[in-house]
Amino acid sequence: MVKVSRFVVQLHDATTLHFDLRIQVGEVLRSWAVPKGPSLDPAVRRLAVPVDDHSLAAGDFEGVHEGQARGSGAVIIWDEGTAEVISDQQDHMSVTLHGRKLSGRFALTRTGERRWILVKARDDYAQPGSDIVAVSPRSVRSGKTWQELRTEQAQHREP
């Protein structure tokens, strides 16, 4: 049974720069931190570390988190769109994404207690040898990079 929901990928400059992949399942966003970001190359396997589920509203945040013990820093919405959850099992999730940067089938597979792997399926949207993260670093909402967003926010704070 295919469930249509949404997904968002946020690029987050926290303790380390990383991507947060969030897929709606019911009333929450299941979330993984993907240090190097997603890939459209089926030969590339990306580490995906599961993190706490997030509220649906968290998937709309673009701005700068400040003053929090962790999770501070600039956040851009790197990609977003609809997600068709094809399979959602304890150790494996298959989805078809329809975003502005990411399209086609992707799989998340648990390989350890706090370790999953994100892989692009070989389909019509696969781009062997591509690096979508380097080619397309800007927010799909504001058109800004995380650095531009951070600088802009800092300028607004100055007297």
* Number of distinct beta strands: 9
Question: Uncertain runs with pLDDT below 50, 5 residues or more?
Answer: none
> In DSSP terms, counting alpha (H) and pi (I) runs of 4 or more, how many helices?
2
Globally, the shape reads globular
- Please outline the major beta sheet: 8 strands, antiparallel, barrel
The oligomeric state is single chain
Class by SSE composition: mainly beta
Distance between the termini: 55 Å
Strand order of the largest sheet: 1-2-3-4-9-8-7-6
* Arithmetic mean of pLDDT: 92
Taking all Cα atoms into account, the compactness measure Rg is 15 Å
Percent of sequence in beta strands: over 45%
Number of domains: 1
The helix content is: 10-25%
The SSE order reads: EEEEEEEEEHH
Short note summarizing the structure:
This protein is mainly beta.
Walk me through the structure.
- This protein has one domain (3-157).
- An eight-stranded antiparallel beta barrel has the order 1-2-3-4-9-8-7-6.
- It is mainly beta and 159 residues long.
- The protein is built from two helices and nine strands, in the order βββββββββαα.
- The protein has helices spanning 132-135, 146-157; strands at 3-13, 17-25, 28-34, 45-55, 63-65, 73-89, 92-99, 103-112, 115-120.
- Helices cover 10% and strands 52% of the residues.
- The model has no long low-confidence stretch (mean pLDDT 92).
- The chain is globular.
